[in-house]
Amino acid sequence: MNIRFTLTIFVVFIFLCVGQAQEMITVEQAVALAIEKNYDIKLSENILSSVELDNSYAFGAFLPQLNGSASRVWNTSNQKQLLADNSTRQQKGLKSNTQAAAVQLTWTLFDGTKMFATRERLEELVRQGEINVKGQITNTVAQVITNYFNIVQQKQQLKATQEQMSVSEERVKLAEKKLQVGTGGKPELLQAKVDLNTQRTQVLQQEAAIVQLKEQLRGLVGMQLPELYDVSDTIIIDLGLKREDIELNIANQNFALLSAKRDIEIARLALHERKAEQFPTISFNSAYSYNKSTNAVSLNPGIPLYSQSNGYNYGFSAAIPILGGFNRRRLVQQAKITLSRQQTIYDQQKYMVDVGVRNAYVNYDNAKQVLLVEEETILLAKENVFIALEGFKRGITTFIELRTAQQSLADAYNRLINARYLAKVAETELLRLNGSLLK
The pTM is what? Predict the structure, then answer.
């Protein structure tokens, strides 16, 4: 007896320690961690940093290109010359060296306004990158909220199953007593034990599902949650969402649509760039050069032993595209096709968003109505099980009637808990599509 008492105290102590070790995490904390640590968000921010870097150097297209060059060459050669009077001049090991330096400046003054279109396109890419980051944050927050309340749902289901197990345990005890006094049958006892074992299996499955969902949530927040943590027991639902409020101005709030709009503008600017390549390019050119040459010996009197020159020049040049294998025309046509495709993609995305809003609101509204019914049903089912159990104790109710009442309670719990979760999922999806989830 002392050993059993000691073991009981030890188990209770371990349970309390584990319970205390599990830190309570709210959905707001999970969302904050996800925004800071989620890998998908970090990748989106990395892409944004890349396009921001490109845009920060866009002013370079308007600046002149300045290049310098310098060289020095040492020569050793053998010369042999046959002159008009048939005399010969010959020298070996002639040495000379030359030095040259130059600075060239090229400044594009007109390129069909391509440089302006390029700068605007880079700015659009930055705007799109910012939208994509916000969109990824919104999608990640939606994932976190859905995962978090899925854990809550499984916890509620676990609690409901454990509550029903107490009734099944009472059924087993009563069935054993009836069998002992001869007022009950063995099949009744066996069925009660089967039902109890079924619920024990459900408890194990629920506990495993909770562990897996918790690990998924840890992954969404960059593994920043403790290994042992707990979540809330309730699902808070905003029951006041209106469809017309969600659909109002959604084209300017949904991040997927905003990003698709930027794709259209980027394609339009790319078409501008291709068209600009059909115009002449006018440039200002200037250069400064320096040359020096030294010859140790010269067989030819016309070649100086030493020469030096330096000076500068400037002027304008024009490059006029005349015929390039129709490549420029092909690029313009391809850019037009791309622009048309981006417009079609936007129209398709708009349709998908509209359908998504309508379907999500149907789920949301249906879940609200189911909640009202199931909140009442669960009270009725609980009372029915209580009456059936008390009647079973007195021999008024059969075990089949009690089991039927239990099953009705289990079904009511399933519908109620599922309706709560589906309402939260639909609410989250509506706010995600509306672009107001972060608010």
Answer: 0.81
